[in-house]
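Example (one chain per record):
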Amino acid sequence: MSPNALIPSHRKPRRPSASSRALRAGVTGGFLTLAVTGATVPANAAEKPVSETQEMPTITTALATSAARSADTAEQVAFTYERQALQDSAFSQAAKAAEKHKAEAVKKAKAAAKKKAEEAREAKEAAQARASRSSERSTLSAPSSSTATGSTATLVAFLKAQLGKAYVLGSTGPSSYDCSGLTQAAFSQIGIDLPRVSQDQSTQGTQVGLDNLQVGDILYWGSAGSAYHVGVYVGGGKFIGAQNSSTGIVERPLDYDMPTGAVRVL
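Predicted structure:
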């Protein structure tokens, strides 16, 4: 027999390892593998754990739908919270505005009440003043000693004859007068010599109250000794005087310009 003759080996055929079979298998059971023909695995190479070769779970339609629903739910919850926050803010602002309007309304009401009270007080004071003037006029127009007789009649007649004449400062007649020039000229008709100016005339004779006037009493405006105007009481609650350059010599009721005081020289 030839030395090169094939001698059957007593060795068992070498079986491919599990890893080799897996590599040859191609795509098997959902795993992507590479087929390596004739590749051998080193003897010292250990097989990888199943966890390293196991495929990640495939995202199914149900899983995607569930995730989408979860996202929608989270979005809806966020929207609900945001809407609630906006509503709370709006309610807070409305409450503050209502409190502000209420405070303003209370303030206006108090101001209106105060104004009304002041108007009522002023009206009451005005009514009292009118009543007082009316009482004074009634007292001043009382008859008794207001009727002119004798020298007072002459005095009053002279004064009435001067009505309508002009007022001229510093004049003593006969065509024009100032206030003290008229009274001086009138009393000279009955023999009474008065000082020239109103300040001095206001201190002549006897001081009398306005509630006890008689015809012929000299009325003055201002204070005694420093009066700025004079006239003569002619009865019936009236006086005659040279008022000013606009009116001239006129007859007026006492409440036209209530005098300060009076003196009696008759």
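Caption: Helices lie at 18-24, 50-53, 61-140, 151-161, 179-188, 198-201.
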